[in-house]
Amino acid sequence: MWSDSKLTKSIRKMASMDDVELRETVESILGQGIRMLDVEKKTSYKSEEVLLINGVAVPLVGADGDIIRQALLSGQVPPSDVLNSLLISAGIWRHPVRLQTELTVKHTTLNRDAITVSRNGRVVDERLKETKEEDLLHKTSTEVWRAVAGPDSMTDKLFQPDPRASSSPANELPTEATRKQDEKSDIRFPSDVDTADEETTSPSPTPSIFGTVASELTPKDGSSRKSLPQTPKSPGSMGIEGSTSSSSSETVDDSGSEPDNSLVFQDNNLVSGPLDALLQHLVPTAEYYPDRTYIFAFLLSSRLYIKPHALLAQVVRLCMLQQNLADQKLTKDKLGRFCPHMVQLLSEWMETFPYDFRDERVMQHVRQLTQRCVALDPSLRRDVSQMLHNLLHRLTALEKYEEFLEKINTEASAALIDTVNVVSYPLNCDVTEVCSSPLMLAQQLTHIELERLSFIGPEEFVQAFAKENPNVETSFKDMKKTRNLESYIQWFNRLSYFVATQVCSNVKKKQRIKVIEYWIEVARECFNIGNFNSLMAIIAGLNMSPVSRLKKTWHKVQSAKFSILEHQMDPSSNFSSYRSTLKAAMWRSAGAKDERQRIVVPFFSLLVKDLYFLNEGCANRLPNGHINFEKFWQLAKQVTEFMTWKQVTCPFEKHPKVIHYLQTGTILSENGIALSSFDCEPPENSHEKERFKALKLAAIHA
Hints:
Elements: H1 4-14, H2 19-30, E1 50-53, E2 56-59, H3 62-73, H4 80-90, E3 97-119, E4 122-147, E5 159-161, H5 176-182, E6 218-219, E7 264-266, E8 269-273, H6 275-282, H7 292-301, H8 308-323, H9 332-335, H10 338-352, H11 360-376, H12 381-414, E9 416-417, H13 431-434, H14 438-454, H15 459-468, H16 484-504, H17 509-529, H18 532-542, H19 545-548, H20 551-555, H21 560-568, H22 572-590, H23 604-617, E10 627-628, H24 629-646, H25 656-664, E11 667-668, H26 670-680, H27 686-701
Parallel strand pairs: 9-11
Antiparallel strand pairs: 1-2, 3-4, 4-5, 4-6, 7-8, 8-10
Helix pairs in contact: 3-4, 7-10, 7-24, 8-11, 10-11, 10-12, 14-17, 16-17, 16-18, 16-26, 17-18
C-alpha cells in the first residue's frame, strides 16, 4: 500500500519527468497496462508584509500599514504617530526598546586637472593631474527607549529614553519636528553615553581639511576615537562673556527641543553652535585634542565675537573646571596627557597667530597656565621655553619690520611731489638707469611682495571686518595690533603711481616709448614668475588716465604683449581669466620642487574683496542664535591658501639698491601726474583743456 505522503512525493517527482520516464514510472507503481490520463498540480502562495523591529515581525495591516508601506516605498520617514501605534499593537511599547542604527557611507571624488601651456602658438607643455579620494565612514548609535503611560494609558504614544541607559534628559520619540532636528546630529558628550554601550561613542575630530568635521563617525579601519571635553556642572560656572549661567549645558526646555549648547552637524560637517559649546570643543583634555583645522578656523573667526585675551581667559577657566587645577594635591598621573595637550594648543596658537600675544593681557594668562602645567609636569619646561623663545623671535622680527616700514614710508613721503613742473622738479633718475633688465626688476618686485606678504597675520583679514563694523564696540578695536595688511595695499597703490610717474615724467616721446615698453616687459616677467600683484599694479599704472591719453606715444608702442596681459587680468565676469590663471599657478606650485615654480603672489585687492563679500554675504549668527560655523570654514579655507603662498622663500638674488629705489623713489600725486601728462602731449578736447586749466590754478594757489 502506498501512503498518501509517499504517493504525493512520487507524483511531485513525476511532474519533472519526460514522457518515457513517466510511463515507466507509472507502470512500476500501478502495474502493467495502466495509463495516467490527467495530473492536476496546485500551488498556493501566502504573502504577508511585516516590519522587523528589533527582530520582532510586526504585520503591516490596515490603514496604518498602508501609510507605512507607502512612506517606505517613497523613501520617506513614516509619521511618528503611526509608528507608535504599530509599536503598541505589537506589544513592544510595554518594555524598554534598544534601538540601534548603523550607517555606512562611501564617498568617491575624482578630480582631473588638464593644463596646456603654449608659447607663440606652439604647445610647449601639457600636463594631466588626476586624483582620486575615497572616504569610507561608518556610523553606529544605540539608544534605549521606554514607554511613558499617559492619562489614556494604552492610547498614549509618548516614548522617552530609558534613564538606566543614558544620563541625558528625556526626549520625545522623534516627531516630524524633532526628527529634522535629530538629522542634524547634535553632538553627544561623554556624559551622555551609556557606559555599558560600546557602540555609541563621542565624535571624532575633523578628518580632512576645512569641510569635514565628524560627529559620531569612525573610519572603517577601526582607528581610535577621541572623546570631547566635558565641563563639570557647577552652579557658579561662568558663561563665555563672564555672566553667570543658571542652567547646565544639558538642560532642555519643556518641549523637548535640542539643548541650547548643542553643536549641529550636517552631512558630517560642523555647521553651527553657540560660542560656549564651540569654545568647549577647543579645550583639550587628557584623552581629547581638537583637530588642527578646527583650531585654526575657530581662532581665526572667533575674534568677530570675543577678544583674544578674553578667549584665552575662558580657556583657562574651562581648564581649571575640567581638570580641577586649583587642587594642590593634583598629580601628573591624575591629569594624564592634559598638560602636554595644553602646551601644544598654546604652541599652535602662537605659531599661527603670534600677534595676539603682543597683548600683555594675553601673556598674563599664558604665564598662569604654563606655570601650572610645568609645576605638574616638569618635563614640559623645555617645550614651554622653546615655545616662548619662538614667539619672542617672531615678535622681534615683526618689530624690526615695522621700524623698516616706518623708515621707508618716511622717505617715500619726502619724495612725494603734489603738483610739479617737470622742468623745475626733475626725477632723481629713470628706472631703466637703476635696473636695465626687466627680468631683474620683476624679481626684485617679487622680493618686496613676498617679504610684505610674510608679515601679514591671517587674523588681520577678520579684524579688518570688525574694524569696519559700526555695531562693534569701540574697545573691541584695540585688538588691532598690526597694520601690515593696510601697508601691503598701500604698496600696490604706490607701485601703480610709480609706473605712471616714470612714464609721464619724460618729456621726450622716444624716452616715454622706451619706458612704457620696459614696464610691459617687467609685467610679462611678473606673469611668468607668478607675481600677479605686481603685474596688476603695473597694468593699473599704465591704464591711468594721464598715461592712457598719450595717444601719440602709444601709437609707437609695440603693445601686442600688453594686450595679452590686459586680457589675463580682465575684470569682466569677476576676473574669470585671472582666476583660471591663478588656479593653474596654484597647481604648478603644489607639485613643484623648484622654489621658482612655487611662487604665487595673488592679486591682493581681489583676495581681500572676496573675503569681504564672504563676510558680508553670510550671517554671523543663525536665527536660533547659533554661530554660523559654515562661514568660519569658508573663511579659514581661503585664508589657508594665502598662508601657503606667503611661506614661500624668494629664490632670486637680492639687489638692495633696486629694492630701495622701488620703495622710496619719487612719485607724483594724481594731479602731478596729470600736469606732467599735459606737458608731454597738450590737451586735445574741451574736457582736457578745462582739466588742464583747473590743475594749473590749483598748482598756483598751492
